[in-house]
Design a protein that fits this description.
The chain is an alpha+beta fold and 111 residues long. It has two helices and five strands; from the N terminus they run αβαββββ.
Length: 111
């Protein structure tokens, strides 16, 4: 009986670790421009949409690193914007579970 309980606990830990998801924040760019659009801006939105129309794939830039994605459709409408991505990161690729616009980092202006 003890062995079965230990085996059950081991299996639960193993499957729990496999389902572990990563979360990153970054900016949606395109493969051609890459990290050039590390900051969200109106110019970045226009450039990324133009490059995407030309056939460039969407990517996510986070902390200077460019990540390719498995599902381009989950990034549609977020071109050039700051996003929060949930999914699994393997090397330079993200298997996206969800993608949503993130609040932009704002700095306080001196008063």
């Amino acid at each position: 009986m003890r062995n079965r309980i230990l085996m059950l606990i081991g299996m639960m830990l193993m499957f729990g670790c496999m389902a572990w998801a990563d979360s990153i924040s970054g900016v949606v760019s395109d493969a051609m421009c890459g990290a050039k659009h590390a900051r969200a801006s109106a110019a970045a939105v226009a450039c990324v949409k133009k490059c995407e129309t030309g056939g460039s794939k969407l990517v996510v830039v986070s902390k200077g690193k460019v990540y390719t994605t498995d599902d381009q459709d989950k990034l549609k409408g977020l071109e050039g914007q700051r996003v929060k991505i949930d999914g699994t990161i393997t090397g330079d690729t993200i298997a996206i579970t969800s993608a949503a616009a993130a609040p932009s980092k704002m700095t306080k202006s001196p008063s």
